[in-house]
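Email to the structure team, subject: Stage 0 sporulation protein A homolog model.

Hi all, the expression group asked for a predicted structure before they design truncation constructs. Nothing fancy, just the C-alpha coordinates so they can compare against earlier work. One-line instruction: predict Stage 0 sporulation protein A homolog, return C-alpha coordinates.
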Amino acid sequence: MEQLKILVVDDEARMRKLVKDFLSVKGFTVVEASNGEEAVDIFFEQKDIVLIILDVMMPKMDGWETCKTIRKYSQVPIIMLTARTEERDELQGFDLGVDEYIAKPFSPKILVARVEAILRRSNAVNTDSVEIGGICIDKVAHQVTIDGKDIELSYKEFELLAYFLENQGIALSREKILNNVWNYDYFGDARTIDTHVKKLRSKMGEKGDYIRTIWGMGYKFEVT
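Reply from the structure team: attached below.
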Protein backbone atom coordinates (compact mmCIF):
# COMPACT_ATOMS: atom_id res chain seq x y z
CA MET A 1 0.00 0.00 0.00
CA GLU A 2 1.32 3.44 -0.89
CA GLN A 3 1.79 5.92 1.93
CA LEU A 4 -1.61 7.55 1.58
CA LYS A 5 -2.53 10.14 4.21
CA ILE A 6 -5.70 9.89 6.29
CA LEU A 7 -7.01 12.50 8.72
CA VAL A 8 -8.58 11.06 11.89
CA VAL A 9 -10.77 13.52 13.80
CA ASP A 10 -12.03 12.64 17.29
CA ASP A 11 -11.93 14.44 20.65
CA GLU A 12 -11.02 11.16 22.38
CA ALA A 13 -7.27 10.54 22.21
CA ARG A 14 -7.79 6.84 22.91
CA MET A 15 -10.11 6.47 19.92
CA ARG A 16 -7.68 8.32 17.66
CA LYS A 17 -4.84 6.04 18.76
CA LEU A 18 -6.92 2.90 18.17
CA VAL A 19 -7.82 3.93 14.62
CA LYS A 20 -4.28 5.18 13.91
CA ASP A 21 -2.69 1.92 15.05
CA PHE A 22 -4.85 -0.20 12.75
CA LEU A 23 -4.39 2.11 9.75
CA SER A 24 -0.63 2.39 10.29
CA VAL A 25 -0.29 -1.40 10.19
CA LYS A 26 -1.87 -1.27 6.72
CA GLY A 27 0.72 1.26 5.56
CA PHE A 28 -1.30 4.47 5.79
CA THR A 29 0.08 7.75 7.15
CA VAL A 30 -2.27 9.14 9.80
CA VAL A 31 -2.62 12.73 10.98
CA GLU A 32 -4.83 13.57 13.95
CA ALA A 33 -7.16 16.37 15.00
CA SER A 34 -9.04 16.64 18.31
CA ASN A 35 -11.86 18.88 17.09
CA GLY A 36 -13.49 20.18 13.93
CA GLU A 37 -11.70 23.53 13.80
CA GLU A 38 -8.32 21.84 14.04
CA ALA A 39 -9.39 19.32 11.38
CA VAL A 40 -10.38 22.04 8.90
CA ASP A 41 -7.06 23.87 9.45
CA ILE A 42 -5.05 20.67 8.93
CA PHE A 43 -7.04 19.65 5.86
CA PHE A 44 -6.43 22.94 4.05
CA GLU A 45 -2.78 23.14 5.14
CA GLN A 46 -1.93 19.61 4.01
CA LYS A 47 -3.07 19.19 0.42
CA ASP A 48 -2.45 15.42 0.20
CA ILE A 49 -5.10 14.01 2.57
CA VAL A 50 -7.04 11.33 0.66
CA LEU A 51 -9.72 10.45 3.25
CA ILE A 52 -11.18 11.79 6.51
CA ILE A 53 -12.51 9.73 9.42
CA LEU A 54 -14.73 12.14 11.33
CA ASP A 55 -16.46 11.88 14.71
CA VAL A 56 -19.82 13.64 15.11
CA MET A 57 -19.85 14.81 18.73
CA MET A 58 -16.88 17.14 19.27
CA PRO A 59 -16.19 20.50 20.96
CA LYS A 60 -15.69 23.81 19.07
CA MET A 61 -17.02 22.44 15.75
CA ASP A 62 -18.96 19.18 15.50
CA GLY A 63 -18.66 16.62 12.72
CA TRP A 64 -21.68 17.89 10.78
CA GLU A 65 -20.30 21.44 10.59
CA THR A 66 -16.82 20.15 9.77
CA CYS A 67 -18.19 18.02 6.94
CA LYS A 68 -20.27 20.93 5.62
CA THR A 69 -17.23 23.25 5.63
CA ILE A 70 -14.97 20.78 3.83
CA ARG A 71 -17.65 19.86 1.29
CA LYS A 72 -17.80 23.48 0.09
CA TYR A 73 -14.30 23.01 -1.32
CA SER A 74 -13.57 19.30 -1.63
CA GLN A 75 -15.13 15.92 -2.43
CA VAL A 76 -12.53 14.02 -0.39
CA PRO A 77 -14.08 10.76 0.93
CA ILE A 78 -15.47 11.12 4.47
CA ILE A 79 -16.34 8.33 6.91
CA MET A 80 -18.50 9.54 9.79
CA LEU A 81 -18.18 7.90 13.22
CA THR A 82 -20.96 8.34 15.75
CA ALA A 83 -22.48 6.85 18.86
CA ARG A 84 -25.88 7.96 17.59
CA THR A 85 -27.59 5.49 15.30
CA GLU A 86 -30.93 7.15 14.56
CA GLU A 87 -31.99 7.04 10.92
CA ARG A 88 -32.36 10.82 10.67
CA ASP A 89 -28.73 11.29 11.74
CA GLU A 90 -27.61 8.84 9.09
CA LEU A 91 -29.71 10.57 6.43
CA GLN A 92 -28.32 13.94 7.49
CA GLY A 93 -24.81 12.57 7.01
CA PHE A 94 -25.55 11.34 3.50
CA ASP A 95 -27.24 14.65 2.64
CA LEU A 96 -24.01 16.42 3.60
CA GLY A 97 -21.99 14.13 1.34
CA VAL A 98 -20.72 11.52 3.81
CA ASP A 99 -19.45 8.39 2.01
CA GLU A 100 -19.81 5.91 4.88
CA TYR A 101 -21.52 6.03 8.27
CA ILE A 102 -20.19 3.78 11.04
CA ALA A 103 -21.76 3.56 14.51
CA LYS A 104 -19.67 3.21 17.67
CA PRO A 105 -18.62 0.78 18.99
CA PHE A 106 -17.18 -0.65 15.79
CA SER A 107 -14.63 -3.22 14.69
CA PRO A 108 -11.35 -1.48 13.72
CA LYS A 109 -10.79 -4.21 11.10
CA ILE A 110 -14.14 -3.40 9.48
CA LEU A 111 -13.26 0.31 9.53
CA VAL A 112 -9.95 -0.39 7.77
CA ALA A 113 -11.75 -2.60 5.20
CA ARG A 114 -14.19 0.22 4.45
CA VAL A 115 -11.35 2.74 4.17
CA GLU A 116 -9.61 0.51 1.61
CA ALA A 117 -12.85 -0.10 -0.32
CA ILE A 118 -13.64 3.64 -0.52
CA LEU A 119 -10.11 4.47 -1.66
CA ARG A 120 -10.32 1.83 -4.37
CA ARG A 121 -13.61 3.28 -5.58
CA SER A 122 -12.12 6.79 -5.59
CA ASN A 123 -9.05 5.49 -7.49
CA ALA A 124 -6.69 6.68 -4.75
CA VAL A 125 -5.04 3.26 -4.77
CA ASN A 126 -3.97 1.09 -7.66
CA THR A 127 -6.67 -1.50 -8.35
CA ASP A 128 -4.89 -3.33 -11.17
CA SER A 129 -3.97 -6.12 -8.78
CA VAL A 130 -5.27 -7.24 -5.40
CA GLU A 131 -3.76 -9.87 -3.12
CA ILE A 132 -5.40 -11.12 0.06
CA GLY A 133 -4.92 -14.38 1.93
CA GLY A 134 -2.91 -16.02 -0.83
CA ILE A 135 -5.48 -15.05 -3.47
CA CYS A 136 -4.04 -12.76 -6.15
CA ILE A 137 -6.11 -11.06 -8.85
CA ASP A 138 -4.48 -9.33 -11.82
CA LYS A 139 -7.19 -7.26 -13.46
CA VAL A 140 -5.11 -6.25 -16.47
CA ALA A 141 -4.17 -9.84 -17.38
CA HIS A 142 -7.55 -11.11 -16.10
CA GLN A 143 -5.79 -13.85 -14.13
CA VAL A 144 -6.29 -15.35 -10.68
CA THR A 145 -3.76 -17.34 -8.69
CA ILE A 146 -4.27 -19.06 -5.36
CA ASP A 147 -1.07 -19.80 -3.48
CA GLY A 148 0.77 -19.32 -6.78
CA LYS A 149 -1.39 -21.69 -8.83
CA ASP A 150 -3.51 -20.43 -11.77
CA ILE A 151 -7.28 -20.75 -11.34
CA GLU A 152 -9.62 -20.78 -14.34
CA LEU A 153 -12.68 -18.60 -13.76
CA SER A 154 -15.49 -17.44 -16.01
CA TYR A 155 -15.78 -13.70 -16.64
CA LYS A 156 -18.52 -13.21 -14.00
CA GLU A 157 -16.75 -15.45 -11.48
CA PHE A 158 -13.66 -13.29 -11.93
CA GLU A 159 -15.65 -10.06 -11.47
CA LEU A 160 -17.41 -11.50 -8.43
CA LEU A 161 -14.17 -12.56 -6.75
CA ALA A 162 -12.59 -9.17 -7.47
CA TYR A 163 -15.60 -7.43 -5.90
CA PHE A 164 -15.37 -9.63 -2.80
CA LEU A 165 -11.65 -8.94 -2.35
CA GLU A 166 -12.09 -5.19 -2.82
CA ASN A 167 -14.78 -5.20 -0.11
CA GLN A 168 -13.08 -7.52 2.37
CA GLY A 169 -14.83 -7.62 5.73
CA ILE A 170 -17.95 -5.83 4.52
CA ALA A 171 -21.36 -7.53 4.49
CA LEU A 172 -22.73 -7.35 0.94
CA SER A 173 -26.40 -7.85 0.12
CA ARG A 174 -27.36 -9.79 -3.00
CA GLU A 175 -28.86 -6.61 -4.44
CA LYS A 176 -25.61 -4.72 -3.92
CA ILE A 177 -23.62 -7.51 -5.56
CA LEU A 178 -26.01 -7.56 -8.53
CA ASN A 179 -25.75 -3.79 -8.96
CA ASN A 180 -21.95 -3.78 -8.85
CA VAL A 181 -21.02 -7.02 -10.62
CA TRP A 182 -23.94 -7.51 -13.02
CA ASN A 183 -24.76 -3.78 -13.13
CA TYR A 184 -28.28 -2.45 -13.45
CA ASP A 185 -28.96 -4.17 -16.76
CA TYR A 186 -29.68 -7.54 -15.11
CA PHE A 187 -33.34 -8.23 -14.39
CA GLY A 188 -33.18 -11.89 -13.43
CA ASP A 189 -33.40 -13.60 -10.07
CA ALA A 190 -30.85 -12.64 -7.42
CA ARG A 191 -30.33 -16.39 -6.87
CA THR A 192 -27.97 -16.31 -9.83
CA ILE A 193 -25.44 -14.95 -7.31
CA ASP A 194 -25.81 -18.06 -5.15
CA THR A 195 -25.08 -20.23 -8.20
CA HIS A 196 -21.95 -18.25 -9.07
CA VAL A 197 -20.76 -18.23 -5.46
CA LYS A 198 -21.18 -22.01 -5.25
CA LYS A 199 -19.07 -22.52 -8.41
CA LEU A 200 -16.51 -19.97 -7.26
CA ARG A 201 -16.10 -21.62 -3.86
CA SER A 202 -15.54 -25.04 -5.45
CA LYS A 203 -12.82 -23.65 -7.77
CA MET A 204 -11.12 -21.90 -4.82
CA GLY A 205 -10.80 -25.09 -2.76
CA GLU A 206 -10.19 -24.42 0.95
CA LYS A 207 -10.00 -20.68 0.25
CA GLY A 208 -13.66 -20.84 -0.76
CA ASP A 209 -14.47 -20.78 2.96
CA TYR A 210 -13.39 -17.11 2.97
CA ILE A 211 -16.71 -16.34 1.26
CA ARG A 212 -19.14 -16.53 4.16
CA THR A 213 -22.90 -16.71 3.74
CA ILE A 214 -24.90 -14.17 5.74
CA TRP A 215 -28.29 -15.80 5.98
CA GLY A 216 -31.18 -13.69 4.75
CA MET A 217 -28.85 -11.04 3.35
CA GLY A 218 -25.92 -12.04 1.17
CA TYR A 219 -22.20 -12.68 1.60
CA LYS A 220 -19.03 -11.44 3.26
CA PHE A 221 -15.44 -12.14 2.15
CA GLU A 222 -13.27 -12.47 5.23
CA VAL A 223 -9.83 -14.05 5.61
CA THR A 224 -9.78 -15.97 8.89
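The radius of gyration is 19 Å. The chain is about 40% helix and 25% strand. Ping us if the truncation boundaries need rechecking.
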